[in-house]
Amino acid sequence: MDSAAGPEPDSPPSASRPEPASSADAALAERVALLYRQLPIGLAMTFVVGALATYELWEWQLRRMVIAWWVLVLGVTAASVVLLAAYRRAQNADAAAKRWLGRLAICALANGACWGLAAAVFFPQNTNEERVFLTLLLVGVTSGGIALFAASWPIYALYAASVVVPFTYALATSESRLFAEIAMVVPFFYAISVGIAHRLHHVLASGYRLRHSYRRLNDEHQALNQRIEEQIQELLEAQREIQASGRKLALFAERAPIAVFEMDANGTILDMNPAAETVFGHAASELVGRNLVRTLIPQDEPALDLAWWSEFAAKRNPEAGLRARCLRRDGLEIICEFSLTPLVNDAEEIVSVIAQCRDITQQLEAERVKKEFTSTLSHELRTPLTSIIGSLQLINTGMFGQLDQEAAELSLVAERNAQRLLDLINDVLDLERIDSGRLALHTEEIPLDELLEESLVLNRAYAERFGVRLKLRAHPPKVMVQADRKRLMQVMTNLISNAAKFSPEGGQVELSVSCADSRVQVSIDDRGPGIPKEFRSRIFGRFAQADSALTRRKGGTGLGLAICKRLIEMMGGEISYADREGGGTSFSFRLPAQDAAPAAPG
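Structure (tokenized):
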């Protein structure tokens, strides 16, 4: 019953493109909702106009017909009210918009038929003056329907036809020549009214579709802003496949967080984004048309000079991670990291060069401060701490005589806290070496069963401090792993000491080994309090400690698991944890196995 609106001459380009079904259905649902919102107005108009007609036609010989007509009007009105109430209560009215539109069409036909019946019945029974009044009244009713049903011109056409057809017949069969001539004009009036309704229908349909299109475009625009960095990277990876003629890409955008330049093969700046203006302090109008190397790079900078640029343009290969000193407009010298990508056409000619530039001055300063800090930890703190711990250990062994109880306790506390501080310094230095890539692993084939037994021996005294026993669940299989012996022992020590530290007194820490899919898995199980849910997402993070009160009582730096994870990953493995049945936690790490034999029964 409804029809799709065609493109308007003055519509924006997006209005002429076909809309997806969901957008068209949504637009239809809104037009149906508009029709139902206007239905009470139509019913009110029926009563107002009907009252005028009744006042004019209320004569003795017509009273029965008027009353009968009002009974019909009230019946149609009641049905319309029921339909409106059902639509407002419907849960899926938008999904069934076409069905509700069809029901409304029947309602409009019934309302129009009431007026058409009035024309057919009352027109022949009245004087010419009353006929003129009735003619004007019916013309007004027909015209008023345009405003009510213009959201769906087929419904208006149906409504107006049910009024006009009986009325035209009554005019044509009247004895007056004037009314007969009016009967010939009425079809033209009907056609014009339907044409107006048809035009309004298209305008409303286009407006609703455009509104949904703009909503969708706004959502896509927000998603595009979030993916802009990813899209720029994808464009850079695909740049070698792009042809210069008609497919030149814009690789920077208004909100790009890094400076982006577009240059020709000689290094002349063709365009730049706002971030480049912020980094270098130059407006785009000041730099466009000038050579980047001559304008922004100091003459004594060897990393990026005119000779290097000539060689880069000749090779036509992308360059990344190029660091060079740059000059801002205010004379301040900064250090920038450049990524240069030449766009080459089929003739192997450089069409343009896209340069991405990032100010890393503060980053380098932070790295320098970090190196100074780690150097201070290593030389200024670790060496004196080692001497302090050694002296305290000599005192605590009674080499210089026995101390009274209070002094002995204070000396023991000092030794333990100094050892904790030294452990923290060593852990921080280990992490720094891992992150900076300066930690070298000396891998070799290691018999895992011997390493496990050695780790139990080395950590047994530590576990006994907490009243915890260490146990190997079964004889481990004869398996060789390619790993750094010292660092793997460090991982075992960290995991065993953690399990012992958080196990209840009198508890037991169990070690087990299993082989599957050319990988060997080592598990360390405890019966401790377990890992809280809110802490699990950051258990392998730096300085991560689930219970600070318990940690302060039992000791720990919060770096052990972070170091274990990085060391195991550097040796080609992975580490994980799981809850144990009956309470406790099981930490496991897996490494590639060189060869394996079945485990002996325990």
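Confidence is low (pLDDT under 50) at residues 1-21, 243-249. Residues 1 and 154 are 6 Å apart (CA to CA).
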